[in-house]
Known about the structure:
By secondary structure, this protein is an alpha/beta fold. It is 37% helix and 23% strand.
Amino acid sequence: MTEATLHNSLEKTLNFKLIRTRRRTLGISVRRGIVEVRAPLKAPNYWINNCLEEKRSWITKQVSLQKLQLQDIYRITDGAILPLLSNTLSIRIGNHSRLSGKVVKRANITIDDSILWIDIPPNNLDEAGLSAEQLQEEKATQIFLKWIKTQAESYMSEATQTLAKEMDLDKLNKITYRRTTSKWGHCTSEGNIQYNPLLMLAPQFVVDYIIAHEVCHLRHANHSKQFWNLVDEVYPQRNHAENWLKQHGHRLAIA
C-alpha cells in the first residue's frame, strides 16, 4: 500500500489522500473534512481524477459539512461546559491546587459540585511555539482524554458484563477502549468488544444503546434481521439513540 497527495488539475483544485491497495474498484470517503481515495495499485491518475470529478458535488458538500461540524466539537478549555452521562460539568483549568494553594506537581482531575477541575503542573505549561491559551488547552486535553477513558472503563465495562450475564452470553472475552474516527463500538468473533471512550460525553441512553448493540453481536456476528430484532428487544430506544448520534455524534470528537 502506498500513500500520496494529489491535486486535481481541473479548474478547481480538489485535495485528497490517495491510498493504493490490491482492490479492483475506487473507494471514496470523507472523514473529519479529509478526502480519502482507495484505488487499485495500477490505476492511472487521470482515471482517478475523472472518477473524483464525477463525485465532486458530493465530495465538496461532505467536506464543507464536516468542516462546519468540526467547529462544533467539544473543547477542553477553561469555562467550557461539558456533558458526562447526561450530567453537565463546568471545566476549570489551573496550575495550582484550588484546595491547599500549593503548587501542583502532578496533573490531576477532580469533580466537585458539577465542576471538573483540571490541575496542570507549571512545568507543563512552558513550551515554545504555542500561546499560553493553546498550550493550556493542549495539556488539559491530554489529561482529560486519559481521565475519560477511566470513566468509560468504570461504567461501560461493568454495564457490558452485567448485560452479557443477563442475556446468558458467556462469549464475552475482553473489553478495551480506543478513540476511533469511524466506530463507536466493535465486537470481534472472538468475543472482544472495543468502545470509543468519548461516548461518555453522550447522554446515558446513547451509551447504553451502544453497549446493547455490541453485546448483541456476541450472539449474532452480523447485522441480520435476527440481530436487529434482538437489539430492539434488549433496547427499545434504539431509534432514539441512533437519531441522537446522527445529529450530535460529530461533537464527540475531541482532538
